[in-house]
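Good morning C.,

I know you're traveling, so I'll keep this short. The sequence:
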Amino acid sequence: MTDKIKIFAYGSLINIRSLNRTVPKVENIFPAKVFGFSRSFSLPSSYRFDSQTSAAVCVLNVETGSSQAFLNGICFEMDAYDFDALKEREKFYCLQEVDIRHYHDEADCYAGYLFMAKGHKPYSFLSTSPEQNHYLRLCISGCEIYGVDFVKQFKETTDFWGIKKESDIKAIWEGKY
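The tokens, ready to paste straight into the viewer:
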């Protein structure tokens, strides 16, 4: 690895405050895309839990998809010391090498990594959980920095495992459980 490591973030790490709690010296943050992956709420969190049921909150994960599939997020750089802290936070994920493209100019391409959980049993979104809603809003508020179109694309490229009805998905995004 080089001195600076590039990471593509697609979930709560898009939120700069959440990112800075783990990686305080993050550098060169910019909106980005990766191709060949799809994003979904399908993974039980290892440290976020519903206060009433003690069930794990459902967090985002990615899976490989068609070459036309893409998702938006952010790219950032860090040094090896901070990378160790990030790997500890994301310890249930594996590192996946990816080509990271600038969101506004896909010709700008960088080699980097994303975190991807493999071999897990799909897990359902806890639509009535305040902690689940907090995680969702954490992701969305991170996206809002990059504009309305960025938020719209985040929503369009994010699935909820096991939830297919458009009205249910719309209610989740609107916070109307």
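Safe travels,
E.
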